């Protein structure tokens, strides 16, 4: 630790001085123990008595006897002589470069910097920011479906109003919330086509007003911090993606500075991107597995819908077999329309050939199965006609279980 000590008086700093010199000056009555002092590594200025606890101030001088002249003694004139001029005079002992007996009012509180800076404590007039950690705000916003995030934005705007009387962030957030709620109201009570358009317009207005409020609050925080000697910079891109959470991280940092004068660690910035990026590999792996499986499920449901679309044709073939004891040769004999007239959402044709039903997939069917043919082959079992599903043109992973 640097042993040199700075002395403060009347809002000014002096020094630094060696501790031994200060001890001597206290003993000689040139410096008082209640003067403010600071040395490198300290957070605040304290009384000199705290740094020199083992030093006692000399007792006050007794009053002068009656009749004594207490005025300053005149300095006798010294005659010039070469001998006296040639005599070496001892160097004067260093004196403190301030008046230790000054009666100017002392500054009640000071803030110290590592470079020995000395100024009235700028933290005293700084309002304590909202103290909730930004990750706590994020968790509560997630639990409440975003409602807490809206409420906390108003809390932040209320605090910003304390450091910037001209801030309009509270008004902007209020208009944003009204537009947001109005968008939902229009969605419920207005009919297309104007309802959805007005809803989207109100949502867009709400988003724009919200970001204007966020960026205005960030600008107010940066300006007030610079005024107090702090360097605070809220990145525009990070603020866009993390808005109130990024702003809250800076407010928490300012709260720590307000309470204890600490400026380390710095306000969060990269940590938010890390929290966002860490889940991405996990999400990517899950998506790589889930998306193909979901696509297979969708295609399989389309093939199944094609099989279901052939149900009336199966019934017609079964009825013809029950009435005639044999299978119909074609659609006409089964009492059905032409094959291309039998269509559905995922089916372009259903044909009958000697009782065998062929379902051609198409229409809105996925390209991986469009053009494929699902064949339902009839067979008599225990006096009843049953159909077996098979195909040579559709991959197995897209087939229903009864067709594999």
Characterise the protein shown here.
With 404 residues, this protein is α+β, with helices and mostly antiparallel strands. The protein has 3 domains: 1-53 and 96-121, 2-Layer Sandwich (Dna Ligase, domain 1); 134-277, no CATH class; 295-403, Glycoprotein, Type 4 Pilin. The chain is 44% helix and 13% strand. The strands form 3 sheets. A 4-stranded antiparallel β-sheet has the order 2-1-3-4. The longest helix is centred in the middle third of the chain and has 34 residues, at 194-227.
Task: Name its key features.
404 residues; alpha+beta; 4-stranded antiparallel sheet
- What count of helical segments does DSSP give? 11
Count the strands?
10
Rg computed from alpha carbons, rounded to a whole number of angstroms: 44 Å
Give the integer mean of the pLDDT values. 80
N- and C-termini, Cα separation: 82 Å
Based on Cα principal axes, name the global outline.
Answer: elongated
Briefly note the structural class of the backbone: alpha+beta
Helix content: 40-55%
Side by side, the strands of the main sheet go 2-1-3-4
Oligomer status? single chain
């Amino acid at each position: 630790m640097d042993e040199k000590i700075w002395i403060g008086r009347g809002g000014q700093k002096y020094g630094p001085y060696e501790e031994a010199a200060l001890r001597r000056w206290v003993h000689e009555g040139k410096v008082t123990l209640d003067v403010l002092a600071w040395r490198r590594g300290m957070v605040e200025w304290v009384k000199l008595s705290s740094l020199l606890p083992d030093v006692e101030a000399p007792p006050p001088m007794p009053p002068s006897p009656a009749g004594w002249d207490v005025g300053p003694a005149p300095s006798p004139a010294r005659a010039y002589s070469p001998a006296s001029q040639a005599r070496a005079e001892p160097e004067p002992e260093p004196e403190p470069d301030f008046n230790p007996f000054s009666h100017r009012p002392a500054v009640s509180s000071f803030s110290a910097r590592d470079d020995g800076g000395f100024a009235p404590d700028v933290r005293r007039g700084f309002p304590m920011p909202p103290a909730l950690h930004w990750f706590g705000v994020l968790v509560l916003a997630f639990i409440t479906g975003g409602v807490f995030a809206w409420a906390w934005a108003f809390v932040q705007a209320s605090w910003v109003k304390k450091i910037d009387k001209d801030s309009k962030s509270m008004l902007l957030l209020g208009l944003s919330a009204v537009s947001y709620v109005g968008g939902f109201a229009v969605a419920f009570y207005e009919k297309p086509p104007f309802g959805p358009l007005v809803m989207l317009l109100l949502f867009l207005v709400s988003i724009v007003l919200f970001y204007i409020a966020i960026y205005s609050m960030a600008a107010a925080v940066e300006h007030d911090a610079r005024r107090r000697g702090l360097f605070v910079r809220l990145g525009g891109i990070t603020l866009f993606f993390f808005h109130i959470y990024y702003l809250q991280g800076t407010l928490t940092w300012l709260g720590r500075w307000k309470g204890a004068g600490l400026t380390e660690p710095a306000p969060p910035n990269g940590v938010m991107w890390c929290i966002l990026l860490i889940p991405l590999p996990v999400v990517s792996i899950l998506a790589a597995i889930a998306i193909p499986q979901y696509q297979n499920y969708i295609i399989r449901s389309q093939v199944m819908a094609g099989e279901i679309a052939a149900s009336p044709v199966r019934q017609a073939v079964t009825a013809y077999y029950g009435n005639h004891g044999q299978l119909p040769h074609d659609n006409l004999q089964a009492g059905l329309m032409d094959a291309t007239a039998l269509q559905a959402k995922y089916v372009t044709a259903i044909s009958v050939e000697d009782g065998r039903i062929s379902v051609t997939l198409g229409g809105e069917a996925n390209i991986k199965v469009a053009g494929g043919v699902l064949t339902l082959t009839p067979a008599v079992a225990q006096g009843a006609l049953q159909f077996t599903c098979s195909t040579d043109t559709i991959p197995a992973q897209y087939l229903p279980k009864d067709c594999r």
